[in-house]
Amino acid sequence: MRTDSSPGTLPAREHLPATAAGTPVLDVVVPVYNEEKDLRRCVLRLREHLARTFPYAFRVTIADNASTDGTPLIAAELAARYPEVTNFRLERKGRGRALRTVWSASDAPVLAYMDVDLSTDLNALLPLVAPLISGHSDLAIGSRLSRTSRVVRGPKREFISRAYNLILRGSLQARFSDAQCGFKAIRREVAQVLLPLVEDTGWFFDTEMLVLAERAGLRIHEVPVDWVDDPDSTVHIVRTATDDLKGVWRVGRALTTGSLPLDRLARPFGDDPRDREITDVPKGLARQLVGFCVVGGLSTLFYLLLYTGFRQFGGSQAANALALLLSALANTAANRRLTFGVRGRGGAVRHQAQGLVVFAIGLALTSGSLAALNAATTSPAHTTEIAVLVVANLAATVLRFLLFRAWVFPDRRDPAPVPGPTTAAYAEPTTISTGDPR
Question: Which of 6, 22, 356, 414 gives the lowest tally of CB atoms within 10 Å of its CB?
């Protein structure tokens, strides 16, 4: 997994200005490999649709992935005949490699791509890129799994697609609905920062890019699409599915170990309302309170279950101490990752040691409450013990949050330095052919 730094902080989102004629606002990339049968029809249909419906200047880029049939000749002919068409030849295969290479070299502020078979209805193209042009969103994807999408495809592909997206939701906590629809767009300045972090060069490229964008807090816009399956598709389903599962494992491991510098993208824009200075309200307090309450509620439930189980085999003090110790370790780990956003293994032992100090304070409060209860009555009912412990834990919880925020996980992050652009590492051998610049 790549860990090299991004080119720097992104500017605030703004509506793209209307540009002079001939300057493309949208660059639609069509990755192809041995598509001599469909290439001409696809490009002409796409060009005609954009000329008729798109209000800005545009470009259609044919990204040829080392085709061995007549595809290069057709691509060169189209580029020579139409000023809006560009041919980009790569000597190595890989859809992800083609997209990263062309997007990295493009000067258009909005970058998109679609499959050569045009399975997606082109009427969704303008709704796809409009949120990027307006500055509302950072990426946009077409979704075949939306309730309002109209999709025609066989049960095998339907099952594989839905199963794959369920795997992404379960393993990588992805919230976008359709990772592999060949219909996506991204703002160029976002691509410049995000693409250096994406390792895959094949079909998993889309998924990896979306997962990293979502984890970094970028805004992803979804557009329901009408989609008709291409029965002549050359995609090898089993091999692609295997490669995708390997990619899921690799990205999941990188996210778990914290090896990706996603903190550099956590606040990529200068217009995030959560970054505004508000008098007398510590930054991030509301989000931390919500996370702490959720973790605290689950920890309390875990503690009560442990206490009830241990109480069957020993006294109340021993059961309380052991249950509180185990739940405290789990609570510190959960708050470290979920509430205060600390990733990676650095400082984990120190945080747990400090958490144990907080645990000792909680133990003193709860044990003292039990001692007071036992002094008041010789044989308190189990429900009474539970009630007393709940009240004592509430008091300990308030103190725990304050100590966590001020001592265990203080916000000491300094602004990350802005490194220079890093694009040379991804240069590919290419042959570029453009149309007549009239």
Answer: 414
Amino acid making up residue 417: P
Select which of 38, 206, 411, 414 is catalytic. Answer: 206
With cut-offs at 50, 70 and 90, classify the pLDDT of residue 58: very high
Sort 400 into a burial class: Cβ within 10 Å, 0-12 / 13-18 / 19+: buried
Q: Is the pLDDT of residue 317 over 60?
A: yes
Phi, psi of 291 (to 5 degrees): -60, -40
Chain segment 79-93, per-residue pLDDT in tens: 999 999 999 999 988
Residue 411 annotated as catalytic? no
- Distance (Å, whole) CA 216 – CA 343: 13
- How far is the C-alpha of 51 from the C-alpha of 55, rounded, in Å? 8
pLDDT the model gives residue 438? 41
Angle at CA of residue 169, ends 167 and 170, nearest 5°: 65
Predicted confidence (pLDDT) per residue in 123-181, tens digit: 999 999 999 999 899 999 999 888 899 988 878 777 888 888 788 888 888 888 888 88
Q: What is the 3-state secondary structure (H, E, C) of the chain?
A: CCCCCCCCCCCCCCCCCCCCCCCCCEEEEEEECCCCCCHHHHHHHHHHHHHHHCCCCEEEEEEEECCCCCHHHHHHHHHHHCCCEEEEEECCCCHHHHHHHHHHHCCCCEEEEECCCCCECHHHHHHHHHHHHHCCCCEEEEECCCCCCEEECCHHHHHHHHHHHHHHHHHHCCCCCCCCCCEEEEEHHHHHHHHHHCCCCCCCHHHHHHHHHHHCCCCEEEEECEEECCCCCCCCHHHHHHHHHHHHHHHHHHHHHCCCCHHHCCCCCCCCHHHCCCCCCCCCHHHHHHHHHHHHHHHHHHHHHHHHHHHCCCCHHHHHHHHHHHHHHHHHHHHHHHHCCCCCCCCHHHHHHHHHHHHHHHHHHHHHHHHHHHHHCCCCCHHHHHHHHHHHHHHHHHHHHHHHHHHHCCCCCCCCCCCCCCCHHHCCCEEEEECCCC
The span from the CA of 335 to the CA of 359, in Å, is: 14
Q: Which residues pair with 221 in a beta bridge?
A: 140
Q: Is 55 left (phi over 0), alpha (psi -120 to 50) or beta?
A: alpha
